[in-house]
Each structure stands twice: as structure tokens, then as C-alpha cells.
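Input (structure):
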């Protein structure tokens, strides 16, 4: 497995260079640590409390209408002019300081097979956002985000030999970071692009995390970092350090490690991927030949 330093060398900041068995309860160090329950695989587990409410389509369309955009049978209109033919609905909507509107629109292939695409719109002109081998869905790896007045997005392109993917982060269309990730079948090179205050956070399929172009793996002294997100405003992510898998939240590592933590599964295996709710998360792990289901309950400081 390539070292973090070796993989980081290819990146640069541009222009700068189920019935649950009795559980063992453990806690992390520090204020407000999470409570962790480990159970053998099998039986039925209660569902997690849902996370933050997703913005409803009607709310998005009302905001879009306030800027003169509407969706009808033939597509997206700005005023009376057809801008994006075949747009079925608006799944995500936002505006940058440079005047562009970013939309994720459902394109009408047929009623059974809608397709999500990203479009940058200025007035009655539209430009598709390139996302080769990526999922251009609301909240998906290629969905744009806003940092203050700036539009930030990730662009993915497959290299001609189909062995790697070139990822570029753009801020108001200016490239600010690039890296090379391995090409892994249908899975996009970018797992997520998110905001942390006024910084962007990029996670790639090879378990590397970049914060404003700086390697989080190097900062946290880990070989791998994945499922990076904010929970209650604090970084929450899994990691591999010295060959052992663990979980970090806030300022501390949870005081338990594993041989493996399942993640990135596709199709039938997606049910084993970590899931996060409002007050708890759950993941599948292995230790000493035993398969575990681990539930982490967050507690306020």
C-alpha cells in the first residue's frame, strides 16, 4: 500500500506550488465523549434517529422562482426562455458571489429513469458541470457548495488509460487544488466535498482527506481517513493508524480499535456502510475474527 507521503506527492495546491446481545460500553477521553456499544452481528437493531432534515423540493423551487427560474414540462426556464431542456425538477439550488446559479436538475430520460446533472446558469445561459464517472446529485461528490460568496466544486476526469482519475477543486471556476486518485470501477474518485467553516474539505476514494489543499492524513498522523464529516460542529471520521482502524470525534480518538471497519461498499454491500443519525452512528467492524455491529451515541459536553 502506497504511503501517505508518496500519494500526497502527486497533489498540490495550485498557484502555491439485529435482537441485540448485551453490549460493552466504552467511552472516549475528553469532555462529552460518545458512548460505544459493540454487539455480535445478527438480530435486529433499532433504527437511528434521522439526521438533519433535507430541504424539500418545494422549498428549493420557491427559492429558484424568486430568481426567475421555473420548471415546466419542457424543462427549466428563466423568465420566458427555455434554459435547460428536459429538466424535470431542481434538486439543489444556490448562488455564488460571481452571479452564477448552480443547479442540480433531474433530467427527463423517462419517468422511470431520471438522471441528475449539474448546471451553472447565468441568466438565460447554461453550462453543464463536468463530472465524469461521478454522481452529480444533491449532496453527492460533485455537488457544488458555497464558502461565503464563492462557489466551490470538484471536477473529475478519467485519464485516457482508464487507470486513474484527475480531480480538480475549483473556486469560482479558478483551479485551487488538484490530485490524482485511482480509478475504481463505477465508484467516483471523490467521496465528498463539504464545508468546515470557511474551508472546503475533500475526501477521495483512496482514503485521503484534504482541508483547503492541506493533507488531513498528515495533520492527524494517519495512513487513511474516511467518512470525514462534521457532527455537532466537530470533525468525525474513521482512520487507520499503524495498521489499526479507529474512530475520531472532536479532540480525541474513541478508545477502541479494530482489524477492519467496513466502508465504501456498493450494491448489496452498501447496507454495511457506516450510517450517521442526529444523536448516534452505526458501523460494521471486525476484530480477532469476530464481526461486530458498533453503535456510537453522542453526548453533549
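Output (sequence):
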Amino acid at each position: 500500500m502506497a504511503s501517505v507521503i508518496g500519494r500526497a506527492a502527486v497533489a498540490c495546491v495550485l498557484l502555491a506550488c439485529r435482537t441485540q446481545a448485551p453490549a460493552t460500553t466504552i467511552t472516549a477521553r475528553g469532555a462529552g465523549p460518545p458512548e460505544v456499544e459493540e454487539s455480535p452481528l445478527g438480530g435486529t437493531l433499532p433504527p437511528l434517529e434521522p439526521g438533519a432534515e433535507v430541504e424539500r423540493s418545494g422549498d428549493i423551487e420557491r427559492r429558484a422562482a424568486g430568481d426567475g427560474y421555473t420548471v415546466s414540462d419542457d424543462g427549466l426556464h428563466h423568465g420566458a426562455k427555455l434554459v435547460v431542456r428536459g429538466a424535470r425538477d431542481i434538486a439543489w439550488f444556490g448562488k455564488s458571489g460571481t452571479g452564477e446559479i448552480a443547479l442540480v436538475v433531474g433530467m427527463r430520460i423517462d419517468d422511470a429513469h431520471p438522471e441528475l446533472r449539474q448546471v451553472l446558469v447565468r441568466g438565460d445561459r447554461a453550462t453543464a458541470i463536468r463530472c465524469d464517472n461521478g454522481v452529480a446529485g444533491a449532496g453527492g461528490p460533485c455537488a457544488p457548495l458555497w464558502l461565503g460568496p464563492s462557489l466551490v466544486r470538484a471536477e473529475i476526469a478519467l485519464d485516457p488509460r482508464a487507470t486513474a482519475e484527475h480531480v480538480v477543486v475549483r473556486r469560482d471556476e479558478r483551479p485551487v487544488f488538484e490530485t490524482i486518485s485511482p480509478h475504481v470501477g463505477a465508484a467516483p474518485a471523490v467521496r465528498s466535498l463539504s464545508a468546515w467553516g470557511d474551508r472546503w474539505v475533500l475526501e477521495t476514494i483512496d482514503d485521503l482527506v484534504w482541508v483547503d489543499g492541506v493533507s488531513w492524513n498528515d495533520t492527524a498522523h494517519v495512513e487513511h481517513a474516511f467518512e470525514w464529516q462534521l457532527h455537532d460542529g466537530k470533525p468525525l471520521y474513521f482512520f487507520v493508524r499503524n495498521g489499526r482502524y479507529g474512530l475520531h470525534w472532536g479532540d480525541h480518538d474513541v478508545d477502541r480499535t479494530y482489524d477492519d471497519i467496513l466502508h465504501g461498499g456498493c450494491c448489496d454491500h452498501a447496507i454495511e456502510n457506516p450510517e450517521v443519525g442526529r444523536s448516534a452512528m452505526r458501523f460494521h467492524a471486525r476484530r480477532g475474527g469476530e464481526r461486530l455491529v458498533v453503535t456510537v451515541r453522542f453526548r453533549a459536553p
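Notes: The longest strand covers residues 87-95. The longest helix spans residues 57-66.
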